[in-house]
Amino acid sequence: MLKLPQPTKAELQVLHVLWQKGTATVREIHDVLSESHTTGYTTVLKIMQIMHEKGLLERDASNRAHIYKPVV
Fold this sequence. Notes:
This protein is mainly alpha-helical. Helices cover 49% and strands 11% of the residues. The chain has a two-stranded antiparallel ribbon. α2 (26-33) packs across α3. The protein is globular. It starts with 8 loop residues before the first helix and ends with a strand.
């Protein structure tokens, strides 16, 4: 079994949205998170890129807008 790193608080917020949606773009995640937080689009993008590098998210880069999904 692959041991993944413990997500940060910000990463958990992204994961909660993805667990509800299944898959989403950075824009879709940002739209949901911006309802309750003042987080910029580029901040969400960077968090999700880091999560992908950590192995917490998978990314489908076959389209112009990358689609992310949770690994866990």
